């Protein structure tokens, strides 16, 4: 045990004395939560639009006012000419133009039917779609109000309820994603680098000649990173709850338990990488390209896996982060208990054991 | 000097595929002896030493280190040897004291032992002012001397030094050898590989490896006489010229 504690103490010295390591370990999770929380958002607010009003009557004025007062749109310009629309879009300042034809109010009053044209800049398709939907909703709202006194023969009223995330906040989906990313980076890359560094400097040889068993070396290397990951999990959760307002609907204990499981999986992967690479650069490269990118791309947190082509969907199954992301989303956002996530937990446990056994085997082979 | 054997090597061979790195070598090292292991790069010195340290399993032959078998008792061997590699083997981001504490700790020494002996070692090396400084701030020569003191800190029976003085100036090398003599005087057996021939003169006995085999083994004086050479340098050149393996 004394050997072991000497070792763990030494590892902490390495970590605490290297400002870069400390920055990656403790600064990165906070930075990522803040970047994802405040800068990267797919909500559309205060989009600049233009209006081409050919009728200028009661109805169009009322509608334009309503659109302008919503928090989604700012009317930047009033156009007078249909031809100028193209030029406006090309300047890139406006995202959408609303065109009212001549005699809008007359058509509405006499024929019960009027037309509005929405022209959106679809070079960014998601934004265009969202804006068109928002504008349509405002127009429908107006229509409902003026038809209130005149009963329509049939009306179907759609009531939409957004379960688990009523405000449709982006934070709900990326907090679990950031957790996966940070744990993967901290545990896998840092452990791989710290072991390979000892190989590079030659201290590993001295350790192997000493009476410490290789398994003890490996575990002692992993312990500080496991503890620091706990700190990271806590800080990410606190930031999400108190700063971003994402609730923890499920059991906190379960959430922490699965996070530890994922941390162990990442540590095992880091050990595996360290036993097949000889330089710190190689270890870093493999961790980043081989693990970090798939974690971001294929875990489902940036891009929905259901929409991917079949080969990618199959590959996504070997990405540990995908399973962790699914679990955290279920537990944290949906408040699901263990009985509904045991399959994912089983897969993750299997992966952890597989990587661990493989890396310990590799570590021993290197000795002979 | 008594006749207790610290190391016995009997027809030891190590093959990597078709390549025979160490080819049927036999020798004995007495307790308290300074035994030099010479050879060009790629002659098989490091491979032989790795087998004796329990880092590598021999392909055939027998060997004992401190009375323990290299096949089955590597754990016991590891407890009784110290090791210093050709690469610098201290942690640059730990202080002098922390390095000593760490290595003594992994050899399972008691806190009291560590505390008392750390003071002695630091005093012997005149590192009192640097004791709490990071190792990376020390000059290379000091680091090497410290690394040696750390390698024998747990009072092993045998210490293996793998080209310990690489890149060190002649004055520091001389000081380093003084430390080796002091260690040998306390009964520690020293097994040292080198390709500095002036260092070979400092050894009690040397063995010269060429192409994985032992070409000559005797005291430096006897070897010089046998080869009719004025220095170990000449002895080595005469023997090494026969080598077939190129420099690796």
CATH class of chain B: Alpha Beta
Q: Biggest sheet of chain B: strands side by side, in what order?
A: 6-7-8-3-9-10
Q: What is the radius of gyration of chain A computed over CA atoms, rounded to a whole number of angstroms?
A: 28 Å
Task: Characterize the main sheet of chain A.
Answer: 4 strands, mixed
Q: Quick one: CATH superfamily of chain B? A: P-loop containing nucleotide triphosphate hydrolases
Number of helices of chain B: 9
User: Average pLDDT of chain A, to the nearest integer?
Assistant: 86
Largest interface, C-beta closer than 8 angstroms, per-chain residues:
A-B, 24 and 31 residues
In terms of structural class, how would the helical and strand content of chain A be classed? alpha/beta
Low-confidence stretches of chain A: none
Q: Give the helix proportion of chain B (percent range).
A: 25-40%
Helix content of chain A: 55-70%
């Amino acid at each position: 045990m004394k050997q072991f504690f000497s070792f763990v103490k030494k590892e902490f010295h390495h970590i605490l004395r290297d400002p870069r390591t400390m920055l990656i370990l403790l600064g990165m999770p906070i930075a990522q939560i803040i970047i994802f929380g405040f800068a990267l958002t797919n909500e559309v607010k205060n989009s600049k639009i233009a209006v081409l009003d050919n009728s200028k009557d009661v109805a169009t004025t009322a509608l334009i006012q309503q659109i302008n007062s919503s928090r989604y749109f700012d009317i930047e310009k009033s156009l007078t000419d249909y031809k100028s629309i193209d030029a406006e879009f090309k300047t890139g300042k406006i995202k959408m133009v609303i065109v009212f034809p001549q005699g809008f109010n007359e058509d509405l009053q006499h024929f019960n039917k009027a037309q509005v044209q929405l022209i959106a800049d679809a070079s960014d398709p998601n934004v265009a779609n969202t804006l068109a939907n928002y504008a349509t909703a405002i127009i429908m709202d107006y229509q409902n109000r003026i038809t209130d006194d005149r009963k329509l023969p049939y009306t179907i009223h759609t009531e939409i309820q957004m379960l688990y995330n009523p405000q449709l906040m982006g934070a709900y989906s990326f907090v679990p994603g950031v957790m996966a990313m940070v744990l993967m980076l901290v545990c896998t890359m840092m452990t791989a680098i710290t072991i390979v560094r000892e190989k590079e400097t030659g201290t590993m040889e001295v350790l192997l000649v000493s009476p410490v068993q290789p398994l003890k070396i490996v575990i002692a290397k992993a312990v500080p990173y496991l503890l620091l990951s706990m700190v990271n999990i806590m800080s990410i959760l606190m930031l999400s709850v108190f700063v971003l307002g994402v609730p923890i609907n499920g059991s906190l204990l379960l959430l922490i338990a699965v996070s530890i499981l994922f941390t162990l999986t990442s540590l095992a992967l880091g050990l595996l990488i360290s036993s097949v690479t000889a330089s710190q650069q190689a270890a870093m490269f493999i961790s980043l390209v081989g693990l970090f990118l798939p974690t971001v791309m294929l875990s489902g947190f940036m891009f929905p896996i259901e929409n991917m082509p079949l080969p990618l969907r199959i590959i996504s199954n070997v990405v540990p982060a995908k399973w962790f992301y699914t679990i955290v989303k279920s537990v944290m956002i949906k408040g699901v208990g263990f009985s509904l996530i045991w399959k994912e937990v089983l897969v993750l446990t299997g992966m952890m054991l597989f990587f661990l056994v493989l890396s310990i085997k590799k570590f021993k082979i290197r000795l002979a | 000097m008594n006749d207790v054997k610290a190391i016995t090597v009997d027809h030891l061979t190590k093959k990597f595929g078709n390549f025979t790195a160490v080819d049927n070598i036999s020798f004995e090292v007495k307790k308290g002896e300074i035994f030099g292991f010479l050879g060009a790069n790629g002659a098989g010195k490091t491979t032989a030493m790795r087998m004796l340290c329990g880092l590598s399993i021999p392909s055939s032959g027998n060997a004992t280190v401190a009375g323990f078998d290299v096949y089955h008792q590597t754990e016991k061997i590891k407890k009784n040897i110290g090791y210093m590699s050709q690469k610098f083997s201290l942690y640059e981001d730990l202080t002098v004291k922390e390095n000593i504490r760490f290595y003594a700790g992994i050899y399972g020494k008691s806190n009291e032992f560590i505390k008392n002996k750390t003071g002695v070692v630091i005093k012997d090396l005149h590192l009192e002012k640097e004791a709490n400084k990071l190792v990376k701030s020390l000059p290379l020569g000091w680091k090497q001397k410290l690394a040696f003191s750390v390698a024998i800190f747990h009072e092993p029976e045998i210490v293996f030094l793998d080209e310990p003085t690489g890149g060190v100036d002649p004055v520091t090398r001389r000081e380093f050898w003084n430390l080796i003599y002091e260690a040998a005087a306390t009964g520690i057996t020293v097994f040292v590989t080198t390709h500095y021939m002036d260092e070979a003169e400092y050894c009690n006995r040397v063995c010269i490896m060429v192409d994985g085999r032992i070409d000559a083994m005797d005291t430096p004086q006897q070897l010089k006489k046998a080869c009719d050479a004025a220095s170990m340098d000449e002895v080595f050149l005469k023997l090494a010229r026969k080598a077939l393996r190129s420099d690796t």
